[in-house]
Automatic annotation (TrEMBL):
<keyword id="KW-0804">Transcription</keyword>
<dbReference type="InterPro" id="IPR000847">
    <property type="entry name" value="LysR_HTH_N"/>
</dbReference>
<keyword id="KW-0805">Transcription regulation</keyword>
<dbReference type="InterPro" id="IPR036390">
    <property type="entry name" value="WH_DNA-bd_sf"/>
</dbReference>
<dbReference type="GO" id="GO:0003700">
    <property type="term" value="F:DNA-binding transcription factor activity"/>
</dbReference>
<dbReference type="InterPro" id="IPR036388">
    <property type="entry name" value="WH-like_DNA-bd_sf"/>
</dbReference>
<dbReference type="Pfam" id="PF03466">
    <property type="entry name" value="LysR_substrate"/>
</dbReference>
<dbReference type="InterPro" id="IPR005119">
    <property type="entry name" value="LysR_subst-bd"/>
</dbReference>
<protein>
    <submittedName>
        <fullName>Transcriptional regulator</fullName>
    </submittedName>
</protein>
<feature type="domain" description="HTH lysR-type">
    <location>
        <begin position="1"/>
        <end position="58"/>
    </location>
</feature>
<keyword id="KW-0238">DNA-binding</keyword>
<dbReference type="Pfam" id="PF00126">
    <property type="entry name" value="HTH_1"/>
</dbReference>
<comment type="similarity">
    <text>Belongs to the LysR transcriptional regulatory family.</text>
</comment>
<dbReference type="GO" id="GO:0000976">
    <property type="term" value="F:transcription cis-regulatory region binding"/>
</dbReference>
């Protein structure tokens, strides 16, 4: 484990507040201050300054934060790998975005477990932004995400292609049409994923590239839960742009209908992301199994 004073430093840097850091770490505020003072004396550098009632990192603090995050992640990896080394059942943590974690991976993980009885794959589901944070924090070994990401900061491998489609209730006026124009879609009540989701980001980026403004959208609701989003659209409260993977069963059961948008094809990739060669055997084996299934 890393020095607890460095844990304190990370928490203050993230919360930008000594009181909130104290609450999270179950410490007193004076103890937090003592930890930061000890680090500043050890490194002979000022790490924080106060601005608008928030604790901001100095340039030296930013540098230490970068190295401390890496040290914390390596410490977690070492603990995880050492436990796996002596355990009969190996455990690996995989983080997936909501579409992938809810509609693509569960069946694959079930098959993988049948083939590898000594391996437990623990699945964490969140939006793209938070999955990337979990990867950098060392909380997951592998991420499976949708949409754009900084390819210069992680190692990655393509999983599969995906398409975003317009989905409506069979009772919606669009359901009777062979296709609709994007202008018509933007004027409808849109029920979309929350900001930070890969699906939302891909859709918005596609609109911008086509010359539209995000202000052109009539966003009726923003929903972080895909199941709830689908239920709202099935109830004809609005329409949505969503992954084909997420609505396969709904389309099959005739509770949703896909309506093509004329000259507006939205495709994206699902990608595996990881940071280093820790657990590379598992990462290669699991990712190849996913691709093959």
């Amino acid at each position: 484990m890393i020095d607890f004073k460095l844990k304190t430093f990370i928490t203050v840097a993230k919360t930008k507040n000594f009181t909130r850091a104290a609450d999270i770490l179950n410490m007193t505020q004076p103890a937090i201050s003592q930890h930061i003072k000890a680090l500043e004396e050890y490194y002979n550098a000022k790490l924080f300054y106060k601005k608008n009632r928030q604790m901001k990192l100095t340039e030296e603090g930013k540098l230490l934060f970068k190295y401390t995050l890496k040290l914390d992640r390596l410490s977690k990896k070492a603990k995880h790998n050492l436990r796996n080394k002596t355990s009969l059942i190996k455990r690996y943590n995989v983080g997936a975005t909501l579409t992938i974690g809810g509609y693509v991976l569960p069946e694959i993980i079930g098959k993988y477990r049948q083939k590898n009885e000594n391996i437990d794959v623990i699945l964490y589901v969140d939006n793209t932004e938070n999955i990337i944070k979990k990867l950098f924090n060392g909380d997951i070994d592998l991420g499976v995400i949708e949409g754009p990401f900084n390819r210069g900061k992680v190692k990655y491998k393509k999983f599969k292609d995906d398409e975003l489609v317009l989905a409506v209730s069979p009772l919606h006026p669009f359901a009777e049409k062979d296709f609709v124009n994007i202008e018509d879609v933007l004027q409808e009540k849109l029920i979309l994923r929350e900001q930070g989701s890969g699906t939302r980001q891909v859709f918005e980026n596609h609109l911008l590239k086509a010359g539209y403004s995000l202000d052109d959208m009539n966003v009726y609701m923003e929903i972080g839960n895909i199941t709830a989003l689908i239920s709202l659209v099935q109830s004809n409260l609005g329409c949505t742009v969503i992954s084909k993977e997420a609505i396969k069963n709904s389309v099959k059961n005739n509770t949703l209908k896909v309506v093509p948008i004329k000259n507006f094809l939205i495709t994206r990739e699902f990608n595996f992301i990881y940071l280093d060669d820790f657990n590379r055997d598992f990462i290669d084996d699991f990712s190849q199994f996913c691709i093959s299934n």
